[in-house]
Amino acid sequence: MKVTTMITWKRTTLLLALLLAVTSLNLAEAEEGKLNQPPEGFKQLFNGKDLTGWKGLVGNPKTRAKMSPEELAEAQKKADESMNEHWKVVDGIIVFDGKGQSLCTAKDYGDFEMLVDWKIKKDGDSGIYLRGSPQVQIWDPAVKAAGGVGSGGLYNNKKNPSKPLLTADNPVGEWNTFRIKMVGEKVSVWLNGKLVVDDTPLENYWERDKPIYETGQIELQNHGNTLYFRNVFIKELD
C-alpha cells in the first residue's frame, strides 16, 4: 500500500513539474511574441529587424542649422556609415558596441509620448536626447558621476530640477522601461512604472539663452559602454 502511494506521489510530482515547465515555456514564447509590438495608440520607432527609420548623428541642432544642404548631406552620409559599424540589431534588440556616436530618429518630433526598454552593463552611462537636446539620463547609479542617483533625471538642467524624484532602476544587467512624455518644454518620466520626473522643463543645452526647440530628433546617446534597447514606441500628441 505504501509503495503504491509513493509511486503515485512521484508520478504526480513529475506531472506537476512537466506542467510547470511547459507553462513557463509558453509564457516565455508569449512574451517573446510581444517583442517590438506597439501597444494600442503607439507606433514602432524600431521594427525589430533593422535600423530603418534611424540615422547617424551629425553635430547638434545649432551646428546643423549652419550647414548648407550639400554639407549636411555629405556629413549625414559619413555619419550613417559610422552608425552601421557600431549599432546592430541582434535577436530583435538594438545593440551598441560602445564606439561611435548616437543613434538618431530620421524624423523630428514635437510633442510626444515614448516607451523604450533599455539595459546597461556595470558602469554604464547613457541617455535619451529629446528634440536633439540632452537628456533623460541612463546610468549605473554606482558610477562616480551618479553618486547613487538613479536614472531618468534631466541631467543637463541648470535652472530646473535635474535629479529624479527617486531611484527606480532595476539591477544593472536587467531590463528597465522608460515612459517619457514631452509637451511643450515640459517633460515627465516614469521609470519601471514609477514617476521620477514630474512635468519639468527641459532646458536648451546647446543655446542656453533660448527655449527648447519646438521639434527635433530623438537620440539614443552613449558614453563608451555596451547598450541595449528594445520595444521603442512613440505616440505623437496633438
Describe what you observe in this structure.
Helix content is 23%, strand content 31%. It is of the alpha+beta class. Strand 9 and strand 10 (186-191) form a beta hairpin. The N and C termini lie far apart (74 Å).
Kindly state the percentage of residues in helix.
10-25%
Unreliable stretches (pLDDT < 50, length at least 5) are 15-32
User: Could you state the oligomeric state of the chains shown?
Assistant: single chain
Query: What is the overall pLDDT average?
Result: 89
Count the E strands.
Answer: 13
Element string (H = helix, E = strand): HEEHHEEEEEEEEEEE
Indicate the structural class: alpha+beta
> Total number of helical segments?
3
Radius of gyration: 22 Å
Major sheet summary line: 8 strands, antiparallel
Instruction: Label the overall shape.
Output: globular
Q: Report the portion of residues in β strands.
A: 25-35%
For the terminal residues, how far apart are their CA atoms?
74 Å
List the helices and strands and how they pair.
Blueprint: H1 2-33, E1 43-44, E2 54-56, H2 61-65, H3 69-86, E3 87-90, E4 93-96, E5 103-105, E6 112-120, E7 125-130, E8 133-139, E9 176-183, E10 186-191, E11 194-201, E12 219-222, E13 227-236
Antiparallel strand pairs: 1-13, 2-5, 3-4, 4-13, 5-12, 6-9, 6-13, 7-8, 7-12, 9-10, 10-11
